[in-house]
Amino acid sequence: MAATNETRRKVFLGLLGSAAGMALGGGAGARAMVDQATRVFRLDGGGVTYAFGINAGGQVQSLYWGAALAASDSLPAAVPVEANSSNEMAPGLTPYEFAGFGGGLTTEPALKVRFPDGVRDLDLRYAGHQDKGDSLVLQLQDAKRAVRVALTYAMDEATGILARSAVVENRTGNWIQVDQMAAACLNLPYSDDYRLYFLSGRWAGEFMLQTRAITPGAFVLESRKGVTSHQINPWIAVSRAATGEESGPVWFGALGWSGNWRINVEMDAMGGVHATAGYNPFDFSYRLKQGESLASPVFHAGFSNEGFGGASRVFHRYQREKVLPHAPRPRLRPVLYNSWEATFFDVNEAGQVALAEKAASIGVERFVVDDGWFGARDSDKAGLGDWVVNLKKFPSGLGPLIKRVNGLGMQFGLWVEPEMVNPDSDLYRAHPDWVINFPGRQRSEARNQLVLNLARKDVCEHLLKVLDALLSSHNIEYLKWDHNRAWSEPGWPEVAPDDQQRLYVAYVDNLYKLLAGLRRRHPKLEIESCASGGGRVDLGIMKLTEQVWTSDNTDPYDRLVIQDGYSHAYAPAAMMAWVTDSPNFVNKRVTSLEYRFLSAMQGGLGIGANLNHRQDEDFAKARRLVEAYKQVRATIQLGNLYRLVSPGNGSPRSATLSVSHDRKQAVLFAFLHSSMLRSAQKTIQLRGLDASAVYSLRPIAGSAAAGTVAKASGAYWMGHGLKVALEGDFQAAAFVLEAVS
Fold first, then answer.
1. Long-range CB contacts (< 8 A, 24+ apart) of 701-706?
2. Which of 473, 511, 574, 666 is a plausible cystine mate for 659, CB 3.0–4.6 Å?
3. Among the options 552, 555, 558, 564, which is catalytic?
4. Longest CA–CA separation in the chain, Å
5. What global pTM score does this model have?
6. pLDDT in tens, 603-648
């Protein structure tokens, strides 16, 4: 998937107050200009200005990235940085837009190559630019050899998010080897009080927000697992020390790549701060023959002067309008039921029909049969890879079940894990060479399975064929696409040794092509990205999947912490959360059904509980909460999110507010996790409302607001706030505010 085609953004090159300004193009509502005298380029959008220039040596340097400058503001020409000493040479201190390894560069390069004669020096110089209408492409070339690099800049007009990517092309007449490649280098203004924020975790504990001061040296975030990973997510934010939730500068970005990746954040010897994001150079090598090229992933970067809340809201909008399928108007997430925790592998037609009838009775809109419907799949030890219906469990196939589900007014969906195979399967017995492996070495299993090599054309074609056949012969409108293990023995023995490490790129490219191919053939199909929970959540996979599974941990309190971290980087429009049984299987915590629902209602609502164990009272409560959710889900999924009180760091309380874009509706969720504080009735100050509008307040669930009015202005709710009466451990309440005409 070529980086230059993955995303299209409008580019705005502002006139810098120079009569020498030259138009590069004239998109609707935009001017594209460059100052010829200073050779300064400037991109403007969404209240953000990004500028770079060509210095006297032809090298491209960052000049400015931050709050929008006036159209009349001139930026000075790029000037080569002087060496501080013979030990701190100029290349290691220069804020390059795309640094090639060479000439004394000691900071992280964006591109490192090796030539057949052993030379590993690269000196990239400006060679021209092109206006593509929705993007600017800057052409660079090595000073000595025909290695060309095309840098793409695409800025979104509404949000100021800048999509950066690169393509390296070999025109040398011989091979070159790419040992390291990033999408971009990003440089920040000089400051001595920067803090780095990132998301770490593990299985069942993803998206934990971390922070640390940026000090001299480098800090590396990466995945070596073949997939995005639970351990670290490819998102970062950098702030000043005084930046808060709703005020202060934040620079942020996320890499759109679903394989091995690395983000390097460093402070050079003179205090300059640089971030580089792209392919992970660990075990990476990509040999390019004459005429071949390699495209980087896309790094999506933005700036906000309105704190972390402003940064996440603008990034959420960008994802909804530019990244997610069906953008700029992504579909609302239907209320989903998944049968996994009710039946595990013991699925059959009668049992699934019974669950479907119960699910329909509480207002579920999509019924999903999880693992166990195919092949010889009675446990996780066999059958994976054999995507044919198990006729012992479904004697007449899936048709009667689907017909019944559809008759109940619900869509039908299935769980699949196409990238994996059990050694005990018909597919593996027929094609043992189809897995990632090193000849003559062990084939390490995890969850009793191996990883199919999607880099192989025959494997990719087989998966497209069998999945297309499954979807073509049934009315299946949804696939929960899972990926349940990290890679091991990453070999590709069918290709030449010098080409085997292409695996890391070719696999992910073919995964994207496979997903895109299925979507073209089946336009109604929706897909969820799952990887043992949140192991594959990134802007690459999210471009091809409507929703993501945030974590296998469905404990409602743990999920509040996970969802808080997730929301810093990714949009609630894509986040799925389930209501499951209590005690929870992860930690045995006991919580009320209402608390579980209100935790899960802050994204796409799913239900994964065993409905066979529910009482009439539970069904009545679930039916009421599902109906209440449907009335506000557009605001929750597509509105502006305000993190009023974070659940992190052991806080006994948390609260979020979702506000519709027209500010006519707002939804407040308030939680008390621990009664350790005597005063549980804390006043919550709302945000984002129309100060002059009058809003009525009504409870969705939980306790009523204490000592408050039922109708007041937005200014009142934001200034005076409301006091939510909660007592005890793991209590919750939710309210909706409606503008009164």
1. 701/594, 701/597, 701/598, 701/625, 701/628, 701/732, 701/733, 701/734, 702/594, 702/598, 702/670, 702/726, 702/731, 702/732, 702/733, 702/734, 703/731, 703/733, 704/733, 705/735, 706/681
2. 666
3. 552
4. 80
5. 0.95
6. 999 999 999 989 999 999 999 999 999 999 999 999 999 999 999 8
Which residue in the list 179, 482, 538, 564 is annotated as catalytic? 482
Q: Which amino acid is at 31?
A: R
> Any catalytic annotation for residue 552?
yes
Residue environment code for 416-433, b if the CB has 16+ CB neighbours within 10 A, otherwise e: bbbbbbbbbbbbbeebee
Q: Which helix (H) or strand (E) holds 251?
A: strand 250-256
Cross-strand partners of 695: 712, 739
Distance (Å, whole) CA 411 – CA 367: 6
pLDDT of residue 706: 62
Express each pLDDT in 112-167 by its tens digit.
999 999 999 999 999 999 999 889 999 999 999 999 999 999 999 999 999 999 99
Q: ∠ at Cα 329 (327, 335), nearest 5°? A: 110
Tokens linked to 34:
């460059």
**What are the structure tokens assigned to 321, written together?**
């309008």
Condensed to tens digits (0 to 9), the pLDDT of residues 340-364 reads 999 999 999 999 999 999 999 999 9
Q: Three-class SS string for 22-81?
A: EEEECCCCCCEEEECCCCEEEEEECCEEEEEEECCCCCEEEEEEEECCCCCCCCCCCCCC
Q: Are 416 and 479 in contact (CB under 8 A)?
A: yes
